[in-house]
Design goal:
It is built from 4 helices and 8 strands; from the N terminus they run αββββββαββαα. With 145 residues, the protein is an alpha+beta fold. The chain has a single domain (8-138), classed as Sandwich (Jelly Rolls). Helix 3 packs across helix 4.
């Protein structure tokens, strides 16, 4: 869960810097190669994370749901978005802007560190899913050779 390593007071501080947003099914939450303005915590619904290649073909990397972070890597490293996020179903999320994170870093750094640990765990889970899918694809390709 998102806030497993945090107490009620710490969770309240994080929620205070969020903005609740809604996306209907099919809506693009953010596009690949755009500048990040923050990131999201999915509260309800599912989001497809898609990579668009050089010829415009899209590949779904994974689908995430409740409790997942999306857009966090680009927001934290301040580089352009590497993927497109599309609402598969109606989505409710908390948005956290880069500006609010910067303020939190100055005001309550220990809480932010605990929050970043939650983000790291979520990134790790996504990476495991993508690695599993890559392994399945590689195995299929090797059988066809």
């Amino acid at each position: 869960m998102i806030f497993d390593n945090m107490n009620a007071e710490q969770i309240t501080k994080i929620l205070a810097i969020t903005e609740k947003v809604n996306f209907p099914a099919g809506e693009i939450i953010f596009k690949q190669e755009t500048e990040p303005d923050g990131f999201y915590i999915v509260i309800e619904g599912e989001v497809s994370l898609v990579k668009i290649n050089d010829i415009g073909k899209d590949t779904e990397l994974t689908v995430v749901g409740k409790g997942s972070f999306i857009g966090e890597i680009s927001a934290l490293d301040e580089k352009g978005r590497e993927i497109t996020a599309i609402a598969v179903s109606d989505v409710v999320a908390f948005r956290i802007s880069k500006e609010k994170l910067d303020i939190m870093q100055k005001v309550d750094y220990p809480v932010l560190v605990k929050f970043y640990l939650s983000i790291i765990r979520d990134i790790n889970e996504k990476l495991r899913r993508i690695n599993d899918e890559y392994s399945r694809i590689k195995e299929k390709l090797q059988k066809n050779i």
